[in-house]
Amino acid sequence: MDRCDLAVVGGSFAGLACARQAALNGLDxxxxxxxxxxxxxxQSTGIFVQEIxxxxxxxxxxxxxxxGVRLYAPNMQYIDLRxxxxxxxxxxxxRVLTWMADRAVEAGANIESSTQVQExxxxxxxxxxxxxxxxxxYLVAADGANSAMAKQLGLGTNxxxxxxxxxxxxxxxxxxxxxxHVFINSDYAPGYIGWLFKGVKTVQLGVAVKxxxxxxxxxxxxxxxxxxGSDATMLSGRGGLIPCGGVVSxxxxxxxxxxxxxxxxxxxxxxxxxHPSIEIGEQLGVAVAAHLRHGLALPQDQIRSMVKRYPVKKxxxxxxxxxxxxxxxxxxxxxxxxxxxxAQIVFFHHRGLLSKxxxxxxxxxxxxxx
Length: 370
Hints:
The mean pLDDT is 91. It is built from 11 helices and 18 strands. The strands form 3 sheets. Strands 1, 2, 8, 9, 10, 11, 17 and 18 form an 8-stranded mixed beta sheet that branches. It is globular, with a radius of gyration of 21 Å. The protein is an alpha/beta fold. The protein has a domain at 2-66 and 91-159 and 245-311: FAD/NAD(P)-binding domain, CATH 3.50.50.60. Pfam families: FAD_binding_3. InterPro entries: FAD-bd, FAD/NAD-bd_sf, Geranylgeranyl_reductase. GO terms for molecular function: FAD binding.
């Protein structure tokens, strides 16, 4: 039987970030990806927040900066939201994941695509990947929102998910490319939002809905054509599940650990998961190396303080799922100053709803503008 230090199941943002850092720190690292290549048939919209794009030094040709958010009420009235010195980043997701995979391989990781890990056996000091005939000292499961590894390993699973779908679109020539266009509309996106933005190569259009509701992407597409260009055509589509119930419990045990969507490390309110996937994935890779090579604490204990629990956002998500907000109320509130401030903090969530700094920056920015 072959042996390695770290086995990573899943070759998306979290898995590749973890694998690269582990390999850079001297571990024999193997990544197993069930698709034909990392980035193939990706389900992610690929919106990065600014700090994570800067942290990984994303190549300029793989991204396009977006200066702000244009938030629409159901009646299509809108407000523009910005944060001083801050932007979102649209990416060519497939090429970004290919680039991340190449960097992991350059660091020394081995990636096996078209390989599905179906059976694992845990022992005290190693985890056996039966079909691969491989014994790993530590296993990281980064296999998505509906994680098969979580079930096999007896770890927590995502109990609350949004259902999302997205088109890549040609057209919408009247779309303002400086904004991520976000739509609150209970007809097309009950329990969450719709979105539209100019990506690196095409326009991206999507919706996500709360549990029990059907995705109406095609009707939403037809609705937006009357506002942004009637000649728009659909090029391709994709869809998937988005965790929205917060971090699962337990997300780690002994020599196995979940990360990324598999662990529910996604903001319950904004459904933003790329940032924590990469940031926590990288730190987990470093922690696994410190544990195996230098005898430090279990990796999950080293990074536990980094894993956000989102208590406020979980409660807001639960309330929104249960009660929602009538379209008439959103139409009325869209121009309200308090609504604007709360919306701005929600979208520029790197500081959080309870952050005094976030509120101070926004309040002083508005006063300065006056």
